[in-house]
Amino acid sequence: MYTLNRPACWWLIRGIALFTLVFAITGCNGGAEPSAVITEPEITPDELPSDPAEIETQVYKEHSYTIENLTAELEKEPDHPDLVFQLMVAEMESGDYWGALELLQTLDSLGDELWASQGHMLAGKIIREKLLPDSPEEIKPELLERAVRQFEISLELDPSPSNLAAYWYLGDLQHELGNIDEAKVNLAFYLAMQPYAYDVRLRLAEIYLEEGTLDRARVLLEGMKTDPNEERRLKALALMPDVDGGKPVRSSVVISLVILILIVFIALVVVILKLKLRPKYGKRLR
Q1: According to the model, what pLDDT value does residue 62 have?
Q2: 2-38, pLDDT tens digit by residue?
Q3: What pTM value is reported for the model?
Q4: d(CA 44, CA 31)
Q5: Radius of gyration in angstroms for the set of CA atoms belonging to the chain, rounded to a whole number
Q6: At a CB cut-off of 8 Å and minimum separation 6, what does 231 contact?
Q7: How far is Cα 170 from Cα 80, in angstroms, rounded to an integer?
Protein backbone atom coordinates (compact mmCIF):
# COMPACT_ATOMS: atom_id res chain seq x y z
CA MET A 1 0.00 0.00 0.00
CA TYR A 2 1.03 3.62 -0.62
CA THR A 3 1.25 6.33 1.99
CA LEU A 4 0.22 9.87 1.13
CA ASN A 5 3.12 12.23 0.39
CA ARG A 6 2.28 15.34 2.42
CA PRO A 7 4.85 17.73 0.84
CA ALA A 8 3.62 16.73 -2.62
CA CYS A 9 0.03 17.59 -1.63
CA TRP A 10 1.02 21.03 -0.40
CA TRP A 11 2.98 21.69 -3.60
CA LEU A 12 -0.12 20.65 -5.56
CA ILE A 13 -2.26 23.11 -3.56
CA ARG A 14 0.28 25.92 -4.09
CA GLY A 15 0.49 25.16 -7.81
CA ILE A 16 -3.28 25.37 -8.27
CA ALA A 17 -3.46 28.62 -6.31
CA LEU A 18 -0.57 30.17 -8.28
CA PHE A 19 -2.09 29.15 -11.63
CA THR A 20 -5.45 30.65 -10.68
CA LEU A 21 -3.86 33.93 -9.56
CA VAL A 22 -1.82 34.23 -12.78
CA PHE A 23 -4.98 33.62 -14.82
CA ALA A 24 -6.84 36.29 -12.84
CA ILE A 25 -4.10 38.88 -13.39
CA THR A 26 -3.52 38.24 -17.11
CA GLY A 27 -7.15 37.71 -18.07
CA CYS A 28 -8.72 40.84 -16.60
CA ASN A 29 -6.82 43.65 -18.24
CA GLY A 30 -8.48 45.96 -20.60
CA GLY A 31 -8.05 47.41 -24.17
CA ALA A 32 -6.05 50.34 -27.73
CA GLU A 33 -8.40 51.48 -30.24
CA PRO A 34 -8.38 50.02 -33.74
CA SER A 35 -5.88 51.82 -35.92
CA ALA A 36 -7.41 54.12 -38.51
CA VAL A 37 -6.40 54.14 -42.15
CA ILE A 38 -8.33 57.20 -43.31
CA THR A 39 -6.68 60.57 -42.62
CA GLU A 40 -8.28 63.99 -42.60
CA PRO A 41 -7.07 66.88 -44.81
CA GLU A 42 -4.04 68.63 -43.35
CA ILE A 43 -5.22 72.25 -43.36
CA THR A 44 -4.59 74.40 -40.31
CA PRO A 45 -7.34 76.68 -38.91
CA ASP A 46 -5.30 79.77 -39.80
CA GLU A 47 -5.45 78.86 -43.49
CA LEU A 48 -9.23 78.54 -43.52
CA PRO A 49 -11.65 81.38 -44.37
CA SER A 50 -14.52 82.18 -42.03
CA ASP A 51 -17.39 81.31 -44.40
CA PRO A 52 -18.32 77.57 -44.28
CA ALA A 53 -18.97 77.48 -48.03
CA GLU A 54 -15.50 78.93 -48.70
CA ILE A 55 -13.97 76.41 -46.29
CA GLU A 56 -15.56 73.53 -48.23
CA THR A 57 -14.36 75.00 -51.52
CA GLN A 58 -10.79 75.43 -50.28
CA VAL A 59 -10.63 71.89 -48.89
CA TYR A 60 -11.95 70.53 -52.19
CA LYS A 61 -9.35 72.56 -54.12
CA GLU A 62 -6.56 71.13 -51.97
CA HIS A 63 -7.68 67.58 -52.78
CA SER A 64 -8.35 68.40 -56.42
CA TYR A 65 -4.75 69.55 -56.70
CA THR A 66 -3.60 66.24 -55.19
CA ILE A 67 -5.91 64.27 -57.49
CA GLU A 68 -4.52 66.07 -60.56
CA ASN A 69 -0.95 65.31 -59.49
CA LEU A 70 -1.66 61.65 -58.79
CA THR A 71 -3.57 61.24 -62.06
CA ALA A 72 -0.62 62.73 -63.94
CA GLU A 73 1.78 60.39 -62.14
CA LEU A 74 -0.40 57.38 -62.98
CA GLU A 75 -0.37 58.31 -66.65
CA LYS A 76 3.42 58.08 -66.55
CA GLU A 77 3.56 54.96 -64.34
CA PRO A 78 0.22 53.11 -64.62
CA ASP A 79 1.51 49.93 -62.95
CA HIS A 80 2.10 51.46 -59.50
CA PRO A 81 -0.55 50.19 -57.03
CA ASP A 82 0.59 52.62 -54.34
CA LEU A 83 -0.35 55.56 -56.59
CA VAL A 84 -3.79 54.05 -57.26
CA PHE A 85 -4.35 53.61 -53.53
CA GLN A 86 -3.29 57.19 -52.82
CA LEU A 87 -5.69 58.35 -55.52
CA MET A 88 -8.47 56.35 -53.83
CA VAL A 89 -7.73 58.17 -50.56
CA ALA A 90 -7.66 61.56 -52.29
CA GLU A 91 -10.98 60.88 -54.06
CA MET A 92 -12.55 59.84 -50.77
CA GLU A 93 -11.28 62.88 -48.90
CA SER A 94 -12.58 65.17 -51.65
CA GLY A 95 -16.04 63.66 -51.13
CA ASP A 96 -16.16 61.60 -54.33
CA TYR A 97 -16.83 58.29 -52.57
CA TRP A 98 -18.14 56.42 -55.59
CA GLY A 99 -15.16 57.64 -57.63
CA ALA A 100 -12.87 56.15 -54.99
CA LEU A 101 -14.72 52.82 -55.14
CA GLU A 102 -14.42 52.71 -58.93
CA LEU A 103 -10.62 52.76 -58.60
CA LEU A 104 -10.76 49.44 -56.73
CA GLN A 105 -11.08 47.51 -59.99
CA THR A 106 -7.91 49.16 -61.30
CA LEU A 107 -6.07 48.32 -58.08
CA ASP A 108 -7.17 44.66 -58.26
CA SER A 109 -6.00 44.37 -61.87
CA LEU A 110 -2.40 45.24 -60.93
CA GLY A 111 -1.95 41.93 -59.08
CA ASP A 112 -0.41 43.27 -55.86
CA GLU A 113 -2.30 41.45 -53.10
CA LEU A 114 -1.11 43.64 -50.22
CA TRP A 115 -2.14 46.91 -51.89
CA ALA A 116 -5.37 45.30 -53.11
CA SER A 117 -6.07 44.19 -49.53
CA GLN A 118 -5.64 47.75 -48.28
CA GLY A 119 -7.84 49.00 -51.12
CA HIS A 120 -10.68 46.65 -50.20
CA MET A 121 -10.43 47.63 -46.54
CA LEU A 122 -10.56 51.31 -47.53
CA ALA A 123 -13.60 50.55 -49.71
CA GLY A 124 -15.28 48.84 -46.76
CA LYS A 125 -14.58 51.87 -44.55
CA ILE A 126 -15.97 54.25 -47.20
CA ILE A 127 -19.22 52.27 -47.37
CA ARG A 128 -19.44 51.84 -43.59
CA GLU A 129 -18.54 55.37 -42.54
CA LYS A 130 -19.52 57.54 -45.51
CA LEU A 131 -22.32 55.83 -47.46
CA LEU A 132 -24.35 54.10 -44.75
CA PRO A 133 -27.01 56.40 -43.22
CA ASP A 134 -26.84 57.25 -39.52
CA SER A 135 -30.34 55.95 -38.84
CA PRO A 136 -30.48 52.12 -38.52
CA GLU A 137 -33.98 52.14 -40.07
CA GLU A 138 -32.62 53.68 -43.28
CA ILE A 139 -29.71 51.27 -43.74
CA LYS A 140 -30.04 49.07 -46.82
CA PRO A 141 -29.01 45.46 -46.05
CA GLU A 142 -27.39 45.06 -49.48
CA LEU A 143 -25.08 48.03 -48.82
CA LEU A 144 -24.18 46.63 -45.41
CA GLU A 145 -23.41 43.24 -46.96
CA ARG A 146 -21.28 44.94 -49.61
CA ALA A 147 -19.17 46.53 -46.86
CA VAL A 148 -18.83 43.12 -45.18
CA ARG A 149 -17.67 41.60 -48.45
CA GLN A 150 -14.97 44.26 -48.84
CA PHE A 151 -13.49 43.43 -45.43
CA GLU A 152 -13.73 39.70 -46.16
CA ILE A 153 -11.80 40.13 -49.42
CA SER A 154 -9.24 42.28 -47.61
CA LEU A 155 -8.61 39.47 -45.12
CA GLU A 156 -8.55 36.81 -47.84
CA LEU A 157 -5.75 38.74 -49.54
CA ASP A 158 -3.90 39.55 -46.31
CA PRO A 159 -5.00 37.67 -43.14
CA SER A 160 -1.86 38.68 -41.22
CA PRO A 161 -1.88 40.79 -38.03
CA SER A 162 -0.64 43.74 -40.11
CA ASN A 163 -4.22 43.89 -41.47
CA LEU A 164 -5.67 43.73 -37.98
CA ALA A 165 -8.14 46.62 -38.36
CA ALA A 166 -10.10 44.60 -40.94
CA TYR A 167 -10.94 42.02 -38.24
CA TRP A 168 -12.51 44.74 -36.08
CA TYR A 169 -14.57 46.30 -38.87
CA LEU A 170 -15.69 42.90 -40.16
CA GLY A 171 -16.67 41.65 -36.70
CA ASP A 172 -18.55 44.87 -35.95
CA LEU A 173 -20.60 44.63 -39.17
CA GLN A 174 -21.23 40.90 -38.70
CA HIS A 175 -22.68 41.70 -35.29
CA GLU A 176 -25.03 44.25 -36.89
CA LEU A 177 -26.13 41.64 -39.44
CA GLY A 178 -26.76 39.05 -36.72
CA ASN A 179 -23.86 36.75 -37.63
CA ILE A 180 -22.91 36.40 -33.97
CA ASP A 181 -20.55 33.39 -34.13
CA GLU A 182 -18.50 34.91 -36.95
CA ALA A 183 -18.44 38.28 -35.19
CA LYS A 184 -17.11 36.70 -31.98
CA VAL A 185 -14.30 34.94 -33.85
CA ASN A 186 -13.08 38.11 -35.58
CA LEU A 187 -13.41 40.36 -32.52
CA ALA A 188 -11.71 37.80 -30.27
CA PHE A 189 -8.81 37.54 -32.72
CA TYR A 190 -8.40 41.32 -32.71
CA LEU A 191 -8.50 41.40 -28.91
CA ALA A 192 -5.93 38.61 -28.68
CA MET A 193 -3.55 40.71 -30.80
CA GLN A 194 -4.45 44.01 -29.05
CA PRO A 195 -5.46 43.31 -25.42
CA TYR A 196 -5.97 47.02 -24.74
CA ALA A 197 -8.51 47.58 -27.54
CA TYR A 198 -11.31 48.98 -25.37
CA ASP A 199 -13.83 49.45 -28.19
CA VAL A 200 -13.42 45.82 -29.24
CA ARG A 201 -13.50 44.61 -25.64
CA LEU A 202 -16.76 46.45 -24.96
CA ARG A 203 -18.42 45.23 -28.16
CA LEU A 204 -17.43 41.62 -27.42
CA ALA A 205 -18.75 41.95 -23.85
CA GLU A 206 -22.08 43.23 -25.22
CA ILE A 207 -22.30 40.21 -27.52
CA TYR A 208 -21.67 37.82 -24.62
CA LEU A 209 -24.32 39.63 -22.60
CA GLU A 210 -26.83 39.27 -25.45
CA GLU A 211 -26.29 35.51 -25.64
CA GLY A 212 -26.16 35.03 -21.86
CA THR A 213 -22.48 34.06 -21.51
CA LEU A 214 -22.16 36.11 -18.33
CA ASP A 215 -18.81 34.82 -17.04
CA ARG A 216 -16.96 35.90 -20.19
CA ALA A 217 -18.79 39.21 -20.29
CA ARG A 218 -17.79 39.88 -16.66
CA VAL A 219 -14.07 39.32 -17.35
CA LEU A 220 -14.16 41.66 -20.35
CA LEU A 221 -16.05 44.38 -18.48
CA GLU A 222 -13.69 44.18 -15.49
CA GLY A 223 -10.86 45.03 -17.88
CA MET A 224 -12.66 48.24 -18.87
CA LYS A 225 -11.88 49.83 -15.48
CA THR A 226 -8.51 51.01 -16.82
CA ASP A 227 -10.04 52.63 -19.92
CA PRO A 228 -8.91 56.30 -20.11
CA ASN A 229 -12.09 57.18 -22.02
CA GLU A 230 -14.53 58.13 -19.23
CA GLU A 231 -17.71 57.80 -21.31
CA ARG A 232 -16.81 54.30 -22.50
CA ARG A 233 -15.64 53.28 -19.03
CA LEU A 234 -18.91 54.41 -17.43
CA LYS A 235 -20.88 52.55 -20.09
CA ALA A 236 -18.99 49.36 -19.25
CA LEU A 237 -19.52 49.82 -15.50
CA ALA A 238 -23.23 50.37 -16.12
CA LEU A 239 -23.40 46.92 -17.70
CA MET A 240 -21.81 45.20 -14.68
CA PRO A 241 -25.11 44.67 -12.77
CA ASP A 242 -26.42 42.77 -15.81
CA VAL A 243 -23.72 40.12 -15.47
CA ASP A 244 -24.05 39.75 -11.68
CA GLY A 245 -27.80 39.61 -11.16
CA GLY A 246 -28.11 43.22 -10.04
CA LYS A 247 -25.00 43.36 -7.81
CA PRO A 248 -21.60 44.15 -9.28
CA VAL A 249 -18.99 41.68 -8.06
CA ARG A 250 -15.27 42.29 -8.35
CA SER A 251 -13.53 39.52 -10.27
CA SER A 252 -10.72 39.52 -7.68
CA VAL A 253 -13.23 38.60 -4.98
CA VAL A 254 -14.63 35.81 -7.12
CA ILE A 255 -11.13 34.47 -7.85
CA SER A 256 -10.24 34.55 -4.15
CA LEU A 257 -13.36 32.59 -3.28
CA VAL A 258 -12.54 30.00 -5.95
CA ILE A 259 -8.99 29.62 -4.58
CA LEU A 260 -10.30 29.24 -1.02
CA ILE A 261 -12.83 26.60 -2.08
CA LEU A 262 -10.12 24.66 -3.95
CA ILE A 263 -7.78 24.72 -0.96
CA VAL A 264 -10.52 23.59 1.44
CA PHE A 265 -11.58 20.83 -0.95
CA ILE A 266 -8.01 19.50 -1.35
CA ALA A 267 -7.44 19.68 2.41
CA LEU A 268 -10.59 17.60 3.00
CA VAL A 269 -9.41 15.03 0.44
CA VAL A 270 -6.07 14.80 2.23
CA VAL A 271 -7.75 14.24 5.61
CA ILE A 272 -10.12 11.61 4.22
CA LEU A 273 -7.30 9.70 2.53
CA LYS A 274 -5.23 9.77 5.69
CA LEU A 275 -8.13 8.33 7.69
CA LYS A 276 -8.66 5.59 5.16
CA LEU A 277 -4.96 4.67 5.08
CA ARG A 278 -4.58 4.59 8.89
CA PRO A 279 -4.26 0.94 10.17
CA LYS A 280 -7.02 -0.32 12.43
CA TYR A 281 -4.71 -1.61 15.17
CA GLY A 282 -2.48 1.41 15.64
CA LYS A 283 0.46 0.14 13.55
CA ARG A 284 2.04 2.53 11.10
CA LEU A 285 2.22 1.51 7.48
CA ARG A 286 5.71 0.92 6.24
Answers
A1: 54
A2: 444 555 554 554 555 445 444 444 444 444 444 333 3
A3: 0.62
A4: 32
A5: 28
A6: none
A7: 28
